[in-house]
Amino acid sequence: MKPKPFLPVAALCAAAIALVPGDAPAAKASVPPPCPPAFPARVVDLMDGDSFEVICGAGTVQVRLFDVNCPEFDEPGGERAKRITRQTTLGWRVWVFPSGKRPKDAYGRLLVRVWTTKGWLSDVLLRMGAAQRYVDPDKPSAGLVGKPSAQAPSTPRGRVTKPKSGAKSNPIVYSTKTGSKYHRAECPHLRQSAIPVRLSEAKARDLEPCSHCQPPQ
Question: Do 130 and 34 share a domain, yes or no?
Fold first, then answer.
């Protein structure tokens, strides 16, 4: 999928470490390099399971996981991979670690690993059977290991894991810092802020469902 143009990474990332004072990795020098070894960001848009857009400093950067490959959105398993990435990242702060040896792909996207509240995003996708690992991330032509699945992986006894009781009737929705409505994860009105809350909490706060994305009620 050909990505849309974006601003130079160096200009966007230079001030990113200052976003989270106190818990950023210790800097090796008083002045950070043009693109820090790692920077905090928020995912604001997804193309598919392994490529998305993050907000960093004064603008956005398109990134691509460099160590795994997910199906395209219109391929079998692509929609599921995108959904897993959305549920793992959207609305949460993540840490982006650019790849050193091969900084960008053929489309100019920054090649990265992403640390989430559930660990490395690549590992989450692999555990869920939603991605394939590159034999050699620095040489994509070396091939892939594994096969992505359009369904959730089975438990060791061969049974599909059931969702926790109440999760379906009380799903996670998203509110904003100043708005009076709640939204689905993919709603465009979440570009400025996205705060995950349970549906019951959103209702208790008298938030109304967004008419654009039509979240559960």
Answer: yes
